[in-house]
Amino acid sequence: MNPTDTLSPAPTAASDRETVHAHVRRAYGRIGSGESVGCCGLAPDAPHACACAGGAPADLAASVGYSAEDLAALPEGANLGLSCGNPTALAALAPGEVVLDLGSGGGFDVFVAGPRVGPTGRAIGVDMTAEMVSRARANAAAYRQRTGLDNVEFRLGEIEHLPVADASVDVVISNCVLNLSPAKEQVWREIARVLKPGGRVAVSDLALLRPLPPEVAASVEALVGCVAGAVLVEEHRGMAEAAGLEDVAVVPKPQYLAALAGFDDPLYREIAAHLPAGTTAADFITSLDVSARRPAG
To answer: Which among 96, 180, 190, 220 counts the fewest CB atoms within 10 Å?
Structure first.
């Protein structure tokens, strides 16, 4: 998207789950196949490619808390510049645990989690985009060669209907994906379903500090860029608690928006152009860490 273009309106049926899924699947499928890069869905050689992906995905990941050691160990092409937090750090993973990544993309967080859970643990990624799953599975060969571990797998499926057994996962993580779902309450119920008693969830996501202007909220580009689908901070708490989770904590993290502004990201600029005078994107949007636990009983 050229930063001088206007935001494209979402289709009138964007509230329909399948319509939203189709737009997200198409855009992220292009990223997974290499036809476009980053949250803006641009061609890899586009002159205004997102700095968050086309320019410096490692810099963006470092800005939200990933270590140089984590990034250096990743298979080439696993980091697509789509992160807005570091859920693997928030989760404090331990050897032997089974961890599930919702919307795993090219496998970034699965490959970070794998060495932490070790040879007796398992890291599972679920993504609804076939191109992303194919890319992650291809990256897994390089992961096995670098680490000597064979403890990762990738499954095709929707996060609203996880292809995972009840009470089979110690930790659920997700990185900037829940905002894309048109049925977030269902996602939280699925998280609660697959967690073992006492299991925990660590989600990094985008959230709203206050409602977006209608022209931004209705934009397909903003939806795919993880903005238009975001909900208010406290709504995350409410959905997690309604799903039966406890010890819910929500912590805003402004570093991500600051990084996008510093990288002069074109989607960030385009959204800012549609905000009320005297405001910035950081007045409306924040990265958010959400943690919770399934009751042990």
So the answer is: 96
